Amino acid sequence: METIMEATNFEPIQLVVETLDHRGHVLHRDRITLDESKPSFSIGRSIRADVMLDDPHVAALHAQVTVTHNEVHVTDLGSQNGITVAGKHLHAASNVLLPDNCLAIGRSRLRIRLPHETLAPELADRAELGRITPQMAPRIAAVGLIVCMAFIIYSVWLEAPRDPLLPMVVGLLSSLLVVGVWKAVWSLITRVMQNEWRWLSHAAVFLGVMAGLYALDAVLEVVWFSLGLPLAEWRELILMVLAGMLVMYGHLAITASIRPATAALVAVLLPLLVAVPATWMSERSHSKDVNFIAEPDPMFPAALRLRASSSLDDFFAQAAKLKDASDQRRKALQDDDGEDGASEEE
Amino acid sequence: MRCQLFKLRFKLSLNSVLWRRLCLGMALSLLISTVAQAKPAVVVPVTQEPLSDSALDVLARSRPSIVQIRGFFGKNSAQAFHGTGFAVAPGGVFLTNYHVVAEQVMFPEKYRLEYRTPEGKTGLITVLAIDVRHDLAVVRAEGFAPPPLTLTNTIPVKGARAYSIGFPLDVGLTITEGVANGRVEDSFDARIHYSGALNGGMSGGPALNSSGQVFGINVAGYRFEQLVSFLVPAEHAKALLQRAQQQPLSLKDAKGEVVNQLRAHATELLGAFQGPLATQQTSGFILPGKLSSFVDCNASGDPSPNQPVQTEAIQCAAKAGLYVQEGLYSGDMTYQHFILTTETLDSLRFTKRLQKIAAASGRHGSKKHVGPLTCKNSNVKLQGFDANLLICTRSYRKLEGLYDFTVRVVSLDNAKRGFASHLDMNGVDFDAGMRFVRRYVETMQWKP
């Protein structure tokens, strides 16, 4: 037969077998040398195959490939699923020429590259509009951030508010939030496209921590009511921040490959970065809202009360201090707003 | 319903551009509709009752003594607000409403006051005395001293003819004819009920009897009702006139004067509730009831039987609010009780419902006038039951020494019945206010 006859004067030949993914990107390459002692190579799942494929739809030894005069031929070694050549599905193919040196076996695609292949000419590297090199990216981002922040501050300054700090912080934070959400959406899309969604793990982290938060909050509410503790507006805030830290740590450390120390640092800092300015903003707006009354703690059936109520004498002795406290808060507002009072928020 | 009507009460001088446009629009549309109706061949003759001879006589006699009072912001020649005034003493001494001159009293450097006679003569006005409590002011007109009108303490009998003169909606000197209906019954403020038209701009004008004597001063009306108008009895004007002549007001002390008058008003209001507070019993709870004859109370409930929680609401108002300045009514007191009972709901959800109703009341106020609320909240022992008591106070900015109170009481003990009570007081002395809050709370009792 022809193959055997030619094998007698066989020139050694170096070739590369590329395994491709469904988009045509190379997953890995195998370098193979064919010579007189080894005139062909085999493809299959077995470790005895020269090109090993991790594909359940491929037989242990699926096909045999020979190369003569820069032409590649393939022979099916009796597989169940057959092979695909130039879009045609073949069963029991024998010595079939591969016109484009490409071959599909099972769900894998292979390309055989020979030393004499014709390559497309090298592409000239011209800077393209819209393409950002890794060196440029941080600089553009930093400049963009500074310019955006400057515009927000400028637009607040232009309005000449009596208290410019609050609208500036609100503007900066809300724009940072928009940037964060924008980035998060793109990160999510990237992860989903790379099949790295891990949504069950994320759901486990989030729902687990939320359940804990609800349970702890409910217990604390009952404890507060039972013991008749004074209203603590910071209680829920602290719980929320703690839950935020736990969720953040869970998302970072458990589901992504990141060092625990780094994850912990980010998990602590990020919720604080959100909570501190948000609390500052709400405190500030409350101190200017003359109609604001803090929402009291939830009440429960009387059977849960452990601490006796105070007498009216004690209560009104304490309430007498409201006079000075009211005067102080009024003066603080006056110092903040000017003598005549600001009307812009009315 | 009466309580709601009072919220619609308007002051006659504060004649915003919007209100005027609204009125003009309504008048125009009325005109258009009558024109359209006149087109058909059948013309119904409209018999217009001419003013009585006495009205012509009253107008002729008092006309020279009545001026329009106009307020201007800054150096503007376009007016900011306007009302009416009339001469009450020789030497250009005029009477008007406090609310006509209030902005100038509060911001003397921002506003100026001028008079304008029906003939078009104008000049400056200075405030000599104010009575916030009765909404009166005595002013002096520069270079204009017409013969004064005569004041009388005698209030015409119910049904007697009466006349009111002023400059409604800036359309020129106008006389309206109506019926005097005596003093308003059950009112904390002394008011005469006048069944005649009073419109914005007539504030401070005289209300006269058939012999041309001034028995009242135009002060307020209901905007969406028909010819229910109010006058301040002239007796209060006499006292103020005396004060104006003996001790004219200096604008420097004007704010202190307003504070003193508001404080006196609050003391008088709280003093009206001497002795044990009147109570009423609902579902086992004894709560403060109609505290005085002038306090308006109305009770309501949801009559449908299938609600998981039955609610009865009792809402009371002293209707003692005074106009202090633009956007600031003070001196009023309101309180509400919501009594809840349930047959079907467990105590956990019933308590939740009760707390929701307790939180439902909102406080109104502008930071132009008051500071933020400061609160004290705790569980206290009351008579026969425990309750959660919240007291919040805030102090006035320009009117130093006055405080607003907001009080919430929510019963704690009963699983099947409970109540939430709100008390709001405006512009009172702190200690007097706190004493009243304590009496209010101490009155509450659980007596199944």
Question: What key phrases describe this protein's structure?
Answer:
A: 346 residues, 6-stranded antiparallel β-sheet, 8 helices, 11 strands, elongated, disordered C terminus, B: 7-stranded antiparallel β-sheet, 6-stranded antiparallel beta barrel, disordered N terminus
Give the helices and strands, then pairings.
The complex is a heterodimer of chains A (346) and B (448).
Chain A (H helix, E strand, L loop, with lengths): L1 H6 L5 E8 L5 E9 L5 E5 L6 E2 L10 E6 L2 E6 L6 E3 L2 E3 L5 E2 L4 E4 L2 E6 L22 H24 L5 H29 L5 H29 L5 H23 L4 H29 L23 H8 L2 H16 L9
Parallel strand pairs in A: 3-4
Antiparallel strand pairs in A: 1-2, 1-11, 3-5, 5-6, 6-9, 7-8, 7-10, 10-11
Helix pairs in contact in A: 2-3, 3-6, 4-5, 5-6
Chain B lengths: L1 H6 L1 E3 L5 H22 L14 H10 L3 E8 L7 E9 L3 E4 L1 H9 L4 E6 L5 E10 L4 E6 L19 E6 L7 E10 L8 E4 L10 E3 L5 E9 L6 E5 H13 L7 H18 L7 E4 L2 E4 L7 E6 L7 E9 L4 E4 L2 E3 L2 E10 L4 H12 L15 E9 L2 E11 L7 E9 L5 E12 L1 H13 L2 E2 L2
Antiparallel strand pairs in B: 1-12, 2-3, 2-5, 3-4, 4-7, 5-6, 6-7, 8-9, 8-11, 9-10, 10-13, 11-12, 12-13, 14-15, 15-25, 16-17, 17-20, 18-19, 20-24, 21-22, 22-23, 23-24
Describe, in plain words, how this protein is organized in 3D.
With 346 residues, chain A is α+β, with helices and mostly antiparallel strands. Chain A is built from 8 helices and 11 strands. Chain A has helices at 2-7, 136-159, 165-193, 199-227, 233-255, 260-288, 312-319, 322-337; strands spanning 13-20, 26-34, 40-44, 51-52, 63-68, 71-76, 83-85, 88-90, 96-97, 102-105, 108-113. In chain A, strand 7 and strand 8 (88-90) form a beta hairpin. In chain A, helix 2 (136-159) runs antiparallel to helix 3 and helix 4 (199-227) runs antiparallel to helix 5. The longest helix of chain A is centred in the middle third of the chain and has 29 residues, at 165-193. Chain A is elongated, with a radius of gyration of 36 Å. The relative contact order of chain A is 0.06. The model of chain A is unreliable at 1-7 and 341-346 (pLDDT under 50). With 448 residues, chain B is α+β, with helices and mostly antiparallel strands. Chain B has 8 helices and 25 strands. A 7-stranded antiparallel sheet of chain B has the order 16-17-20-24-23-22-21, sandwiched between helices. Chain B has a 6-stranded antiparallel barrel with strand order 8-9-10-13-12-11. In chain B, a hairpin with a 6-residue loop joins strand 12 and strand 13 (229-233). The radius of gyration of chain B is 25 Å and the shape is elongated. Chains A and B meet through helix 6, helix 7 and helix 8 of A and helix 7, strand 21, strand 22, strand 23 and helix 8 of B.
